[in-house]
Amino acid sequence: MRCDDTMLRTHTCGELRKEHAGKKVTLCGWVSTHRIQGKLSFIMLRDRYGKTQIFVNPELTKKLGELRRESVIQVKGEVKKRPSNQVKKELETGEIEVSANEINIMSRAAPLPLELDESVASTEEVRLKYRYLDLRRPKMTKNMELRHKAVQFIRDYLDKKGFLEITTPILTKSTPEGARDYLVPSRVHKGKFYALPQSPQQYKQILMIAGVDKYFQIPPCFRDEDARADRCPGEFYQLDLEMSFVEQDDILNITEDLFIKMVQNVFPEKRITQIPFPRLSHEETMKKYKTDKPDLRKNKKDKNELAFCWIVDFPLFTKQTEEDFFHGAGKEWAPSHHMFTAPKEEHIHLLDKEPGEVKSYQHDLVLNGFEVGGGSIRIHDPEVQKKVFSLIGFTDEQKKEFSHFLEAFKYGVPPHGGIAPGIDRLLMVIMGEDSIREVIAFPKDKTARDPVMDAPSKVTQEQLDDLGLKLK
């Protein structure tokens, strides 16, 4: 990685090669090791881009003393080519070292509470509390770089396909959408609350009504849910994608093409088991695999094998259960996906008599036994939408909470649909990580705490008074 010249450095620690021999350079970075050998010493200097060995002459070694690991320094010196028998083949910069003539200590490090050596295990609690240290580890640095490249590829791909990236509000309305809301009290409107969005579902459908035609964003979504290995509590990011004047196959085809090309470009070592992705009905999947998230890998020990598949033809409704309770719906029926999913046209007549038999245009994307995305063709008929609200047991008061949505349906709604793959979970599976927290810079812990910031935390009585709140 090339460094554009700045006042503090001329190159990164991963940039110099034998071609730079004889060049005067300035490097900045963290001290990985400081090895003193008699009167002289060697520093392994590290930044995000790599490592460079620094030769420190006796005079500078005496002046520096012992440098503690992770101290930040600036090194000025000359690039020297190593003899062929001293080349460090494990380093990209292994053919050279920098002979220092000046070393400035920019920041001294205290003893580390976390071991950065990849071979030394640390507890997750310590890793999350000192995440800014944990992120210095090469594996975590690589994970963040791969996440960036994957997200950038998605943006570039969709831009070329004519999609508009549009951001939607974070402070929005609390409506029953399946999980518990995170609520934000309003100071201006006493006694009223915003909700953080569980997803931009209503906004993206309203954007289709607005004529946007092709929309995407990569928004944070907020759900008050318990933690799992593949689900970080509190918040997560998803690729939110919606299109007008499409059928289900259009959505599946563009999503499939996007992820095939993303894997090929960002994760070239990975191999997709089957292209095009298999498309399985929900009914046959449950009969054959006893799950709607089948793992279709041919060799489950192969970390580079990616077995994508589509699950389609879901029932529109499922029975409410304690294990998978849809918050806001009644006691009998819950939407299998959400209450905006369209029933198949040939099953609309069953809504009044046998709602449990109605099939929908829901589609789930499954990868190696994990659901990594879900979507549907949406309802665009206001009467069908009202019928679905009634069937899932919404009260009249709950229906009023969607009055803004039904109002928009009066003014010309195009057929539309979309999908929302979870970025965190998708990357966790592709990268072969056991925990979703390995692909998130600052994840919540298993109790939905932010260990770095120590959040949630108490607030002052003055803040509560401003909001008109009183704690029990």
Structural class based on helices, strands and sheet pairing? alpha+beta
User: Mean pLDDT, rounded to whole units?
Assistant: 93
The largest sheet has its strands arranged as 6-9-12-21-20-19-16-14
Molecular shape: elongated
Tell me what the structure shows.
- With 472 residues, the chain is of the alpha+beta class.
- Helices cover 24% and strands 24% of the residues.
- The chain has twelve helices and 21 strands.
- The protein has helices spanning 58-64, 124-129, 131-134, 138-160, 201-209, 248-266, 282-289, 382-391, 396-400, 403-408, 423-430, 461-467, and strands at residues 24-37, 40-47, 50-56, 72-81, 96-107, 164-165, 182-185, 193-196, 214-217, 220-223, 234-237, 240-244, 271-272, 279-281, 305-306, 308-312, 317-319, 333-335, 362-367, 370-377, 416-419.
- Strand 2 and strand 3 form a beta hairpin.
- It is elongated and about 90 Å long.
- The model has no long low-confidence stretch (mean pLDDT 93).
Topology:
Layout: E1 24-37, E2 40-47, E3 50-56, H1 58-64, E4 72-81, E5 96-107, H2 124-129, H3 131-134, H4 138-160, E6 164-165, E7 182-185, E8 193-196, H5 201-209, E9 214-217, E10 220-223, E11 234-237, E12 240-244, H6 248-266, E13 271-272, E14 279-281, H7 282-289, E15 305-306, E16 308-312, E17 317-319, E18 333-335, E19 362-367, E20 370-377, H8 382-391, H9 396-400, H10 403-408, E21 416-419, H11 423-430, H12 461-467
Parallel strand pairs: 3-5, 6-9, 13-15, 14-16
Antiparallel strand pairs: 1-2, 1-4, 2-3, 4-5, 7-8, 9-12, 10-11, 12-21, 16-19, 17-18, 19-20, 20-21
Helix pairs in contact: 4-6
